[in-house]
Amino acid sequence: MYKEFGNIDALMHCINEDKTISGIHSATAGRFPVRFVLFNNFNDYYDFVGRLMDNGVALTSVNDWLDSTYPDILINYVRLSEKIASLVKEKETTDLVIAPFSELARFYDNKVNKEFDAIISTIKAIEASQKAFDAKQRVYIPIVGLEGKMSRFFTDSQIYIWYFKNQEAQVNYRLILTNNTDYGVDGLAHNYSIVRNVNEWLRLWRNQQMKPNIICTSRSIFAFAEYAQPDNAFDFVTCNSCHEFLIKGLGLKLEFLSHVGTSTSHWESLAKEINAISFDFKKFFNAKFDIHALAGYDVFIKTWFENNSFFDRWLLVSYYIEKFCDTGYICAALKEIKGYSNVDIAQALLLTIFDLKDSEAYIDERREVLAYVSKEGIVLSDGIQKKLEEKLIGIAQTLGYSTALRYFSLVTNVEKALVIYWLGKGYIQRDAVKELYPDIYHYLGRTFGVKDSESKWLLSYFDDYKFAKVANSYSTKVKNAIGSYNHDSATFYSWYNSFSNTRTLLNNRKDIEVYFWIDGLGFDWVPFIQYIISERHNDNYYLNEVLAARAELPTKTDINKKYLQLLTQREDLPKSGDLDKLSHISRQYPQYIIDDLAIVRKTINEILNNNPGKKIAIVSDHGISFLSQYLPGFNLPGFVSDHGGRTAIAKKPTIDNRYIILDDNKTLCALRHNSLCAKTHDGCGCHGGCTPEEVLVPIFIVSSQPNASTWSATIEDFEISASNPVVKFKIKGVPFDQTAMVEYNSIEYQLNAVAGDVYSTPHLPLDASAQTILLKIGDKSQTFNLKLSLGSVEEDLFEF
């Protein structure tokens, strides 16, 4: 039978009446001693059990029936019902209260197997022995919060159910369930009751030690938690992940951390750094990263690269998006980020702009951020680079190449390749890439270092060679110069013999402390290396001299290495970098340009870094030509090829203007870019022949002291006539690495060294309105006044 009570006293009165019952109903009451007593809160439950015990009722705890060896094994409903039946029989003359019962029974499967119903039906049918009947034994089983499950028995006349339904508002216990973990969160015990197994769970209720919030990490309870509903005493919070535990379980305001790219490991790492007593994410974040003003994107990107762990970067991105992402490019990019590697952020920063409506508004911020990213040497996949390339080409075709350059960053290889390709095609000019790609800008800078006026043509030749190399074609200017200065043996030797080899130039130098040899470094690298060393002025590295030397013929390493070794009288002359080795590997245009720029930069900086305060000579054995790949080989019969046909052996060679014959009368060196035998492979450099880029090598003298940088100039004659429109200057102290220039009528002209300290302009197009000329050397200039004699115009007497 089912009864409800409005207060505890009424319930206890019923208990007493039932215990002393007589008359017609006493037989049934005595035959079935089990009484199920329902409560909707634990306070009433504890009050009830306490009153029973005060009245001599014996308490039996269910957890005493658990196997102590396996404290987290949930006793099944059959065994529990057997234990209760056995207890009732054993204590047949004693009144019993069995608790906690519902804290175990609530987890029995009543969805499929109806285990809860089964145990209730079994227990209610327990019959008293004759002794128990005579003693009017009563067995009380308190049940808390299972009104829904027990309701199906309310109409059962063969069961005793008494329900104290307290009408006062009750606060349910909050049960936070996890699968055997608290995720390493510190300080949980301060605000939560912690239960690790079934045994601790049952003891918690017996000892009345629970807090309103309970964290239960029992595997068994977690596994059977789905069967506990409905329940009007507990609010269950089942946490299947660390993310759910921190947010749903502990109630931490961390929802903003849930975004694309978040992984389980991130949450678990965060949990280990949380103290649940007083966790404040802002304070935690500021302390962790030692920053208190993250709003600037420059601070964000710097912090990103200072913290390599994906966990740290996850926190950084999440917090930045939450607090500062109202506007700005980096915010738009971070919302598209798919992970926390350098590749992920580089991809987002590179590509997001192409999907924004007002992309021009974000270009400056994107450029600044990517300038920082580019220093990290991040390598993106071919797929990402291909997509970026398509976007950049699309902008160039629709908005023009100058606009497209604004979207470049040089983070990727494909961007560098596009810059070189567009330079080669003439779509953009060299000045347009000075800030964007300074390495290629300075590589294409004016060549200097040849002092002899008869050999000055080599400076313009090397400039033409470099542009042909970048243009991936054999230019007319290079062809004409080679046809003239390498026309035959005589013309070649006329300029070749005006240079000395490296050993001769440095033979008596006592000031050089260390020598370094870069294999394959030609004279075309002079302006680029000057630029690299100029970047190190703050570290007290200065380029003091650049000398031009010739390689011995044929221009091969084994021929020239022995002369270099004589500089130090050592066979182990330090060798840094190896352009030679790479030049023989077929590489796609313009990859070999990109590679070699990076190698030269790295090599020069390594030499400087390892030799602070020393006077250094950087030398080379020979140069490399990349133009032979564009021309067919001569395939001369009977010639044994060496170094790709740049040099060859022939038994009885005849005089021919396509090659020179060395003193052994069998070794031949190509005068032209056409190799003597088969064509040079595409994408390969070569050496061994007689072209200027193979023959002429630089010598760089570097020290910790700068050269004196003062120069003085006078004009030889300020009166300039139309018949000889040339201005001459006498200039003293021109720095070796500077080119003397003049500006006349807003046009720049390069001065030519005549003799000694005398320099002259080319023929100038005189203009009566332009009466001054500006001399410029480096960052200094001087203005001179001119007096022009343009002649008079006679009146035509026959004009009508």
Automatic annotation (TrEMBL):
**Record's protein name:** BREX-4 system phosphatase PglZ
Protein source organism: Muribaculum intestinale
Give the gene that encodes this protein: pglZ
